[in-house]
Amino acid sequence: MFIVDSDGADQGLPGEYGVDDIPLIVQDRAFEDDRTFTTTSDAQTGLLGDTMLINGTVNPHFSVTTETVRLRLLNAATARVFNFGFSDNREFTVIGSDGGLLPAPVAVERLLLSPGERAEIVVRFQPGEQPVLQSFAQELGMSEKFNNEAGGNDVLDLLQFRAAARLAAAPGLPLTLATLEPPALEASVATRSFILKGMYINGKLMDMSRIDATVGAGTTEIWNVSNTDSQPHNFHVHGVQFRILDINGAEPGPEFSGWKDTVFLPVRASARIALMFGPYTDPTTAYMYHCHFIRHADHGMMGQFTVIES
Ligand SMILES: [Cu+2]
Predict the structure, then answer these.
(1) Taking all residues of the chain, what is their mean pLDDT, rounded to a whole number?
(2) Tell me: the pLDDT tens digits for 151-202?
(3) What share of the chain is helix, strand, coil (3-state, %, to 5)?
C-alpha cells in the first residue's frame, strides 16, 4: 500500500504508524491442498476465498494501546464486496475516501467497499475490550442464488482488537478535515456514457490499439456509468480523482461524497461522476478505466483514454 499525504493534512488525527495508524489490506483467498493459492473460479463475479488475509495474516489480532485507532482500509479482494462493521455494531467514523480526507467526519455502523475501494476510519476503544472487525451480509441486487455465490450472505471475521487495560488518551476528532471544492459542473465540457454489461464496456472489450476517449487537460467531464447487467460491477479510473454526483438519481452518502477513483455499481445501478482532469498531457500514453472485479478486467472489461492539451 502506498500512502500519499500532504503536509499538515493530518492535524488532529491519529497518525503514528503501527501504533494508532494502521494500514489494513483485506483479502479473501482460497488455498489448494499443497497450500498454494487457488487462482481460478467459474463464479460470474470471480473467485471468493474462504480464508481472510489481513496484511497477509490469517486469524490476526491487533494490540490496541490508544483510545482511538485510525484504520486505512483497502479492499484488495478480486471479487468480494466487504460490508465493514464491528461485532458489537459500534459506531465508527469515516474520515477519508479513495483520494483523500472527507470535509468532515461521518459516523456510521457499516461501510461497504467493493474491490479496489479504500477508506480511512477512526475507531474508539475502551480498556480491556476485544471487538472484532467483520464483514456483514449485504444486498448485491442479484437473485438469491447469485447473491449467495457472490458472497452477499457471508458474515466474516477479519481482525480482532485487544485493548490494553490502560489506553493512552486521545482527543476527539476535528470537526472539519479538509476543504473540498464542489465539482465545477458549469465548466463541464463533455458528457460521456459507459454501459457495463457482461465483460463489455459500451459493447467493447479492451483493445490496446484503440483509444476510447480523448479528454482535455484541466477540464471537467461528467461520465454516466450504468450497470445494465445481472451481476455487480464497479468502475475505476486511473490518473484522475472524481466526485460522485448521484447514484440511481440520489446523492451518495456523505462517506462517498469525497474524492473517489472507484464507484460501486450493484445490479442495475447507475452513477453520475464528475472528473476533473489535471494539467499533465501525453497524447500517446493512455490511462485505463475498468471494472475492478479482477475477473472482469482480465476478460477485457476495460477501456483507455488519453489527456491532451485543451
Ligand atoms: Cu465487473
Answers:
(1) 95
(2) 999 999 999 999 999 999 999 999 999 999 888 888 899 999 999 999 999 9
(3) 5, 45, 50
User: Helix (H, G, I), strand (E, B), or coil: what is residue 146?
Assistant: helix
Structural domain total, the chain:
2
Together in a domain, 189 and 139: no
pLDDT tens, residue by residue, 78-104:
999 999 999 999 999 999 999 999 999
Whether residues 284 and 153 fall in one domain: no
Rounded to the nearest angstrom, the distance between the alpha carbon of 216 and the centre of ligand 1 is: 27
State in Å: Cα 46 to ligand 1 middle. 9
Å from CA of 181 to ligand 1 middle: 30
What is the CATH classification number for the domain harbouring 39? 2.60.40.420
Q: Are residues 193 and 78 in the same domain?
A: no
- How many whole angstroms separate alpha carbon 66 and alpha carbon 285? 46
Under DSSP, the state recorded for 265 is E
Min mean pLDDT across 4-18, 19-33, 115-129, 284-298 is at 4-18
Ligand 1 centroid vs 294 CA: distance in angstroms?
Answer: 8
> Is 33 within a domain?
yes
Chain-centre distance of CA 167, in angstroms?
Answer: 30
The alpha carbon of 221 and the centre of ligand 1 are apart by a number of angstroms equal to: 23
Task: Give 307's pLDDT tier (boundaries 50, 70, 90).
Answer: very high
> Distance from the CA of 45 to the center of ligand 1, in angstroms?
7
Q: How many angstroms separate the alpha carbon of residue 227 from the centre of ligand 1?
A: 9
Residues 297 and 212 placed together within one structural domain of the fold: yes
> What residue numbers bound the domain in which 266 lies?
185-308
Grid coordinates given for 67: 483510545
Per the rule left: phi > 0, alpha: psi between -120 and 50, beta: everything else, 148 is alpha
Q: How close is the Cα of 79 to the center of ligand 1, in Å? A: 9
